[in-house]
Amino acid sequence: MDSLHAMWKDKGEMPDGPRAPVAALLDNIRSAYNVGDMFRSSDALRLAELNLVGITAFPPNGKLEKTALGTTATVPWRHDLRVFDAVAHVRSRGYALIAIEMTPASENFFTADIPAQSCFVFGHEVLGVDRELLRQADSVLHLPMAGYKNSLNVSSTFAIVLYHHLVRHGMLDFAPPQLDSSYLPDKRSE
Length: 190
Known about the structure:
This protein is of the alpha/beta class. It contains 5 helices and 7 strands; from the N terminus they run βαβαβαβββαβα. The model is unreliable at 1-8 (pLDDT under 50).
């Protein structure tokens, strides 16, 4: 690997310190590629856990691994066939259950008051979050949409929601990345 791209190498070891007190519940996500992408985001944010439910792909799975890029080994996860077993687990861990779904009664995610210790629920790409699960949620929130479509890809929504939540609650370190001494900055602007 050339020195210009040395900054993209993975860290040699897992970071020390606690994980963010934030979890996610993936309710019957049909695309293993989306699930792999959510593992990547979960690793980047050091989420406490991913709860995979129903038909949601879980390791080992080649399609999931293709986008997870090894993060299935770095993110705590569990799989439950029944969503209410996952809900009981999440509740036993003290999380507020926050469903991300556009409904007639949902609130704007960016203006809602959300507890720091939350488990965010993301649903099936076409069918959304299960109705009974919506009834059990402490809050149902949506991302505002200004375009023709009323939703984003679930893995994009996952990243937006979780990054914003961790920033809002001061759980992200904004220090610049530690680069290898061989890294050469881009000199084109000089």
